[in-house]
Design goal:
The protein has two domains: 239 residues, P-loop containing nucleotide triphosphate hydrolases (Rossmann fold); 200 residues, Rossmann fold. It is an alpha/beta fold and 508 residues long. The chain is globular and about 70 Å long. Strand 13 and strand 14 form a beta hairpin. The longest helix has 16 residues. Strands 6-9-10-3-11-12 form a six-stranded mixed sheet, sandwiched between helices. The chain is built from 18 helices and 22 strands. The structure holds adenosine-5'-triphosphate and magnesium ion.
Length: 508
Amino acid sequence: MDNDIILDFQNVTKKFPGVTALDNVSMQIRRGEIHGLCGENGAGKSTLVKILSGVYPYGSYEGKILYEGQELRLEGRSIRQAIEQGIAIVYQELTLVPGMTVGENIFLGKEPVENGSINWDKLYAETREILTKYKLDVSPQALVKNLGVGKMQMVEIAKALSENAKILILDEPTSALSRAEIDKLMEILETLKSHGVTCIYITHKLEEFFRITDTVTILRDGKAITTRPTASLNQESLVQHMVGREMKERFPKGNRQPGEVILEVENLQAVDPNEPSHKVLSGVSFNLRRGEILGIAGLMGSGRTELVMTIFGEYGKITAGTIKLQGKPIQIKSARDALKVGISLVPEDRKGQGLILIQSILRNISLANLDQFSGFFRINQDAELAAAAQQGKNLALKASSLQAAVSSLSGGNQQKVVIAKWLLTQPKILIMDDPTRGIDVGAKYEIYKLMNELAEHGVSIIMISSDLEEVLGMSDRIVVMHAGRSNGTLEIAEATQEKIMALATGIA
Ligand SMILES: Nc1ncnc2c1ncn2[C@@H]1O[C@H](COP(=O)(O)OP(=O)(O)OP(=O)(O)O)[C@@H](O)[C@H]1O
Ligand SMILES: [Mg+2]
């Protein structure tokens, strides 16, 4: 037996009703390497790692997996067993309990117990130790629900690292992290690697593969297409393997002709409605034209999400400033008000705000639009089905049927459902908060094309994005936020990554 091989997949097949998520996968992972898994939405990446963590137990799939030469047999649905064997996983979707503290979350299910009760001092001391060790800037006593998505993700990682893992699996760990946090994570991974920990790394951000992985396996439609040293690939060849065809450009050319100003935001200031002493917006001004794509850039925590949530009536309490729609001041107090005047928002946190996971794709898509489909006494199901099917098709949604539960979709496909849902409201202004997070390169392209089409038909789009290439590739103008303020607006012709960063960090 080759001692260097820590995991050996032999003809692994995993089927769900109507879908073969993994199709005869054979691949090997070497001890101590950082092994990237890449592939389009629905390719089977998460399914593969869920088998490793025991979410899909032994017997629910065909084929076998050798772990250090022994057949891996994880029984039952508890992931504790995998953890005890040294396999830890950080999930794509956050799994923390919002009402608990950071420490309680990290030690959930393994709290230090003394004389029959939890030793809280010890729990928090150990929490602090882990956080310090990995230089994670979070307070052990903080409630998870008060942390931003970025910090929550860090707690997830700390939780997995607290287990002395031999194999650490990260399923899109950076989708919500800031640049600085990503750098920090990369450092952690290098440290773990130097200690011989094996890492399986899933991401849709191609540059991360090249930055951190030693080896890459490419999955397509449940099949392992190839495993090879990362150094033998470049962006183009990687993408070509993933999508099975050549992709020449990342951003489709649009033919947008922005018209008159339809939305004007002037010196908008707002506080946290739950904590009025906490100012979240301290002076934001910009305008939006008809048929324009306006990018909003800024660092994590600069107030981008707070800004759009405030405009949408779902969050901040406005203390000063005005919002004018087609020249008239408007007051939006709730999402319902916003929808009424033609403003829709694709939210950042799809699980919390976007979707009802146990409901069907169809119901989720039509949820925001029930008025449109209500006939007498019952929803017009045919119309609902036709509209949802059209949206699914536009977005290349990968699902066994529209009746399937959203929880059965891959992460990226869940995101597409959120987008489809808000597109159906036929907004005049569509706000998209990080719309392509967790979405593969091919599907990103489809979403960009759709954005172009909408804009060409006169819809105005506000797009928040942390991906500078995306902001530069898709926007007509870019508003850069810094510390709760709009720190400048750049015309696309003059915008560069350096100028955006200078405004975002407050240097300019
Ligand atoms: N619990 C489930 N029930 C039914 N089908 C499922 C279930 N989980 C996954 N699938 C299907 O299996 C396929 C693979 O999904 P998986 O989540 O592994 O994809 P992925 O590569 O992680 O995609 P993404 O990049 O979008 O996260 C998809 O077609 C998905 O719809
Ligand atoms: Mg996934």
